[in-house]
Specification:
The complex is a heterodimer. By secondary structure, chain A is an alpha+beta fold. Chain A has helices at residues 5-14, 36-51; strands spanning 21-28, 56-58. Classes of the chains: A alpha+beta, B mainly alpha.
């Protein structure tokens, strides 16, 4: 059975080979009908984009 | 509490209060960890931004960010939204262990709370709500807020206020909720 986005995000954030996250917080998007699976999908993809150089580091 | 010091510092600022002003105070004065900031292709309908602090130094992402906390915002946000998202996420540098989210069930619960509007409020969600008000408190000095309150609907529209403060228009009504001062008072107590 395919791993869900939620399980992938949980593994990425908190799993033994993951980030060992101590604190995670979120600013949700504009859609009222977004699901936890969709949010988890976004987080997974975002972290992977940052790792692979597809995001831009900024100054505050 | 350290947020009280940040709030006091922001009271003396001219509007729009710069996100760098907030960040510099957090890092240089309060000596909080110097977070890294990323602009990413997040779908703003789903997620506008997030904050995370991780400790596995064997993981590329953690190494890439020097083991520091990370704030990520959606690249497609306009300046007002980006500022607010960034400042709100920076407020999580103040989170204590009780309000920190660090396990799979807590992650599931927070995402469920955001998407279902369940009445139960986890400790993590409580910190999300607090950080929202903390960000508003930083970005609108109280003296200016009271002036704007007098002018609101008379000479200033909500869009005017948002433009002056450089915050999203949809959050302007929150600045003028009757219990705004009580909310801030509790946060700086």
């Amino acid at each position: 059975m395919a791993t869900t986005n939620m399980k992938q995000a949980q593994e990425l954030l908190f799993g033994n080979d993951g980030l060992a996250v101590r604190n995670f917080k979120l600013f949700p998007g504009s859609a009222r009908d977004v699901t936890p699976e969709e949010i988890a999908e976004e987080i997974n993809a975002s972290i992977h984009r940052i790792e692979s150089g597809q995001a831009q580091q900024q100054e505050f | 509490m350290s947020y009280a010091k940040l709030y006091e510092h922001c009271q003396a600022q001219r509007i729009p209060v710069g996100r760098k002003v907030v960040a510099d105070f957090l890092f240089d004065v309060l000596q909080l960890p110097r977070a890294r900031l990323w602009a990413d292709g997040l779908n703003t309908q789903r997620v506008r931004g997030y904050y995370l602090s991780g400790k596995n130094t064997n993981h590329r992402f953690i190494q890439q960010n020097g083991g520091l906390p990370v704030v990520v915002f959606a690249r497609d946000l306009d300046d007002s939204w980006a500022r607010f998202v960034i400042v709100k996420e920076l407020m999580h540098l103040f989170d204590d262990p009780l309000h920190s989210l660090g396990s799979p069930p807590e992650f599931d619960a927070l995402l469920t709370e955001f998407t279902s509007g369940l009445p139960h409020r986890s400790a993590a969600m409580e910190s999300e709500i607090n950080s929202f008000w903390m960000a508003l408190g930083c970005l609108c000095p109280e003296g200016m807020r009271q002036e704007m309150q007098q002018a609101r609907g008379v000479t200033l529209s909500d869009a005017d206020i948002a433009a002056q403060l450089l915050i999203p228009t949809q959050y302007v009504p929150n600045l003028f909720t009757p219990n705004f001062k009580n909310i801030i008072s509790e946060l700086i107590a």
